[in-house]
Structure formats: structure tokens, C-alpha cells
Amino acid sequence: MAYLTDIEIAQKCEMKPISEIAKTAHVDEKYIEHYGRYKAKVDLSLLKETDKKDGKLILVTAITPTPAGEGKTTTTIGLADGLKRIGKNVTVALREPSLGPVFGIKGGAAGGGYAQVVPMEDINLHFTGDFHAIGAANNLLAAMLDNHIQQGNALNIDVRKITWKRCVDMNDRQLRFIVDGLGGKANGVPREDGFDITVASEIMAVLCLSDSITDLKNRLARIIVGYDKDDNPVTCGQLKAAGAMAALLKDALKPNLVQTLEGTPAFVHGGPFANIAHGCNSVMATKMALKMGDYTVTEAGFGADLGAEKFLDIKCRMAGLTPDAVVVVATVRALKMHGGLAKTELAKEDLSALEKGIPNLLRHVSNIKNVYRLPCVVAVNRFPTDTDGEIDFIIKKCRELGVNTVLSTVWAEGGKGGEALAREVVRLCEEEKGDFRFSYTDGMTIKEKIEAVATKVYGGDGVIFAPQASKQIERLEQLGFGGLPVCIAKTQYSFTDDPAKLGAPEGFKITVRSVKVSAGAGFIVVLTGDIMTMPGLPKSPAAERIDVDENGRISGLF
């Protein structure tokens, strides 16, 4: 049987005009700014002028990702469509995809199968231009910084201590470390420089955590671009760049409205990676979705040790949000990979490999239930090769933690395959009250916060701080940044900082090699292991298979 590809399914969908989707979401036409027939931005004044109460907030997260796939975004969308099918007024809040993974190895981020947001091609490519605006604002600041140095350097900036990088939304390893300003005095001051991918830019985090234009400008002004020759921080505000940057970002700050294949309103906005940034869609989009729906389903990137930890410890802390229920997504295939099977061996029943791999799921579930004290359900994305024995094994193990397991077939059946999960989520929201708490308190030191995440969430024995990291932490606390939450950049493939350690490792320590402040975003960035803020393309990038025909019809996206 030949299956349609994700893009073929999306292209067969008869989308509703975005004005109809806005009505479904209870958004008055006066707040809608059309970007063609099927995309719109929603004016921020809607939040000030609506008197609707917030709905229930459902967070979808997942086990530690593997090449076998988990389907977190697909489950988020299918759950929302499932809630709609059982009669609930629902919205979904997602991140925008980065062009880097779209053209690299991971593919797009608009869901999959019959649980997608559309127009899929637009969302995965330029969408409404938000990422271009973020890149332009980032690079305007870089240009103004270097121009300030060229024009006399009144702020006495030490060119060896510049921390601000340029960015581009592409996987381009060639740009990680560069030397620029060459060619003589008229062409700038020679210095070492580098690029981040746009989704790792602090501007992305700032946009996603801002709740107004004023807040955006204040956050931009606080960004630290480097240090002067006396080791004092130099800010975007001192360079007088914040106003112009905010002008570039004023439309990008407005959430985007699109739809699922089944016509559920979807707010798709912002896109920080969860391994190198905070991994959640924008606060504005989440708050808007909560006002417009009785249930809002959102997701956070990668496994629960990254996306969910940052959603709960950073985004919820800053925005005053509390999830009513959490869904942890798993697949039998991925758990067997955590148990040591190769990707080519996943089609046969193997309870031994499943038993070795399931501790990964159980640790994530235990964190949600016992560290963050939130109601939780496990959603198993069922594949045709999964056996009843394997499914029953997962159900039994999760029940021992007091958590139900629900089978999900949203990839193949859309909202219909998410109805059972939807009913369990409604039950959790109505019958089980959480006692939400963070994994660390504001009053802890920076090192104590990092250690709390490493031991309580990752399951490690502690943290090794490189001498450079300890010095950086000491300086940041002297500068008054000790009260900020921590955003730990770590491999997505393991609870540890070593991507080769699968399952639920024990007896390990995380190594912190560098620490810096994102003063505009309002968190401390903690770099562990070999994590990089500019990915590279794989040997055979997805871009080789993407094409467009004479009629503008795109193929090869997945």
C-alpha cells in the first residue's frame, strides 16, 4: 500500500479562509491582519480588550528523542483535533519551524500524516517573515556594535570580549568561527567573530518572552553585547539600537493564526530550539490561545528534560502560567532503541529491549509527576509493527507510577485517532488537581540551580564546573544576575551531556564548560558537553530532495 507523504496530504486539504478560522477562535475580524487567504497575524490589542477567562493549558512533551521518531508535534495537533471532535472549544499553540532543520536532517515542524497545520509549505519556509525580522534585528545590532568601535569606540569596548554574534537561519558550520573586518582601516576593526543559527539568537528568546512592545524594547535594551576594557558589560541600550530593532520586530511580535487539517485554530509563533534555547512558542501566542479556547494544547521541544523543563522553569515562571495536564509522548520503537536495538531491528517484538529502554520514559513521567507535581498521561504513538505484548508492558509499567497510558493513532487517523487521548486529558483537567512547583527556587545560587536540574530532572549525581565556567558564574553574580533562571544547553539525545548514553543513565555528572547571561531574555545560558549554537548540514541534506514545479507546487518537504 502506497502512503501519501506529509506534503501530499497537506496539499490535498481544502483549507478554510483564515477569517472563518478566526471566527472559530472567537477572534473579531478587526484584530486580523491577512497574509493571503490562509494566514493571518493577530493584533496584540486583542489580549487587552478581551474579557474571556483563560482556558485549560495542556503541555505536550516527549521521551528523549531517537532516530525512530516520537511524534510530539503530530500528537499535539492530533490531540487538539481530538478535543474538537469530542465537542471542546480548543486552540493549539506551536512554534514556527527553522529553515536549518527543514533543509537539513530533521525536516519541518508542522506535524505529520493526518495531524498537521497548514499551509504546510508556507509554515515550513518563509511563513509571515518573523524569522527574517529576527535575523535582521540581530544583525542590525551586530552592525551598530562594530560601527561604534570603528567610529571611535566611546564605550571603550574590548574587541576580545564581544559576545554578540551575527546570525542566519541556516545550518552553516562554515560560519561558526570567522575573522572579519579585514581589508584595512576603512573596512572595520579585524576581530574574531561567528554566527549562530537564528533560532539560537537571544532576539528569538526576547521575542518569545515579551508581552508587549514596551516589554520588547526594555528587553532589547538590556541585551549584553560584550564587555569594556574594565570588564563592565556593554548593552544594546548603550549602543542606542533598541528602538530601531523594535521597529523591525513590531509585526513579528504579533502571533500568527493558521489551521490544522481539520480546521482547529492554531497559533504558530516563535521558534527557539530546546537544546540550545528555551524551546517554547511565544508567551503572547500561548496567552492568546488560552483566551480564545477552553482548552489550549501546546508543546515544548525535544524530550521533557529539555523542552518541558524550560517551559516549566522559565516560561511558566516568567509568564505566570500553570499547566493543567501534561502529555508525555513515546513510541515502542524509540523505547527499543533506548534499549539498545538498531533502527533496522525495530519491527520485531523484543520485550527485553523494551524493558531496558522503558526507564527513559519512566524517568520523564516521574519528573512531571513528582518533581513538577502535575497530572500526567502517557501517549503511545502506535505503529503497525507494535505488538499487544509490547503495549501491555508499557501500560503496566506506567500504571505502577500511577499514570495512565493511551494509544494514539493521530498520524494515520487525525483527530479520530486522538479522541481517547482527548478524553483522558479532559479527565485529568477536571478530576486531578496539580500542585505545581518549579525544580529550583529564585533564591538559589546559579550553581545550585544548575545542580538542581542535573540531579532532580536529569537523574545525575551532580555537576562538574570547568574553571572558566566558575569564574563566569562568579562574575555574573557580582553583576546582579544571580536571581535569573537557568537555560541549560545540552544534547537532546540523552539525559546526560553525552549523546551516546541512551535510556536512563545513572552515576553520571554534567560538565558545564561555559556560562553567559541573556539579560534581555532574562535567563542564564549554561553550555554543557559539545553543544553548538550553529548546526551543520548532514552528508545528504533534505535540501537535495526539495523542488518546485512550473506551477509553484513544492515537493520533497516532510
Q: What's the gyration radius in Å? A: 23 Å
Strand content range = 15-25%
Shape, principal axes of CA atoms: globular
Structural class: alpha/beta
In DSSP terms, counting alpha (H) and pi (I) runs of 4 or more, how many helices?
19
**What does the largest sheet look like?**
12 strands, mixed
Q: What average pLDDT do the residues reach?
A: 94
Poorly predicted runs are: none
Give helix % range: 25-40%
What is the first-to-last residue Cα distance? 19 Å
Let me know the number of strands: 25
Give a description of the structure.
The chain has 19 helices and 25 strands. Strands 1, 2, 3, 4, 5, 6, 14, 15, 16, 17, 18 and 19 form a 12-stranded mixed beta sheet that branches. It has a 4-stranded mixed beta sheet with strand order 20-22-23-21. Strand 22 and strand 23 form a beta hairpin. The longest helix is centred in the first third of the chain and has 21 residues, at 130-150. It is globular.
Structure characteristics:
19 helices, single chain, alpha/beta, 12-stranded mixed β-sheet, 4-stranded mixed β-sheet, 558 residues
Write the layout of secondary structure elements.
Elements: H1 6-12, H2 18-24, E1 32-34, E2 40-42, H3 45-49, E3 56-62, H4 72-85, E4 90-94, H5 99-103, E5 111-112, E6 115-118, H6 120-124, H7 130-150, E7 157-162, E8 166-168, E9 178-180, E10 191-193, E11 195-197, H8 202-209, H9 213-222, E12 224-228, E13 233-235, H10 242-249, E14 256-260, E15 265-268, H11 283-292, E16 295-299, H12 304-319, E17 325-330, H13 332-338, H14 351-371, E18 376-381, H15 388-399, E19 404-408, H16 410-413, H17 419-431, H18 446-457, E20 462-465, H19 467-478, E21 486-489, E22 509-518, E23 523-528, E24 547-548, E25 554-555
Parallel strand pairs: 3-16, 3-17, 4-15, 4-16, 8-11, 17-18, 18-19, 20-22, 21-23
Antiparallel strand pairs: 1-2, 2-14, 5-6, 6-14, 7-12, 9-10, 12-13, 14-15, 22-23, 24-25
Helix pairs in contact: 4-17, 7-8, 7-10, 9-10, 13-14, 14-15
